Amino acid sequence: AAMSKKGRKLLVDSLTRSAKHFTKSEVECLIKLFDTLVAKASSQFAGAGFDRTVFRDTLYNAFGMTDDAVLDRVFSIFDRDNTGCITVEEWVEGLAVLLRGTLEEKMKYCFTIYDLNGDGYISKEEMFQMLKHSLLIQPADEEPDEGVKDLVEIALKKMAMFPSFCQDYDHDGKLSFTDFEKAVRDENLLLEAFGPCLPDIK
């Protein structure tokens, strides 16, 4: 929808404050990109935003994110009000974390991606579902899911160094955010332990 110069300036100022990690000129560029994406989208949102298809295509083309399951989860995180439409605020603030987030912000983001049912834990089943989509080639002589199960076990062993996780694991095989955070702070590579959900560094 067309916006007055004053309205646009207020929007830029507001998003520069809320998105934190972008400069004013970067926010202006992201709003222009948003307008371009809205023009590509179907008119069902009356110019207020764009849908899942446009979002997925954009993340695929811009950042090389190709995993359908992950892209669906990223869309859900961006779409905070669960309307099926990404608004300009959701777009800019979501990209601020995705592209420039602190380690703390990225840990929360990745954990939420992996916590498929939103119960505050990553279960073995959720780990399996996420990793299942990450393996490109399965050896012909191996049961397809066996490689994934092995990866889940390797990830669990790596994270089992933390007492509270071991306690949870003995009972129900669930990983809490606290345990995930401890593991990632100890070894940053574990941030995407259950599948790639951040853009390539370039």
UniProtKB/TrEMBL annotation:
SUPFAM superfamilies named among the record's database cross-references: EF-hand (SSF47473)
Keyword RNA-binding applies: no
PROSITE patterns listed in its UniProt record: EF_HAND_1, EF_HAND_2
Segments forming domain EF-hand: 66-101, 102-137
Keywords: Calcium, Metal-binding, Repeat
GO molecular function: calcium ion binding
InterPro entries: EF-hand-dom_pair (IPR011992), EF_Hand_1_Ca_BS (IPR018247), EF_hand_dom (IPR002048), Recoverin (IPR028846)
Domain of life, source organism: Eukaryota
Protein name: EFCB1 protein
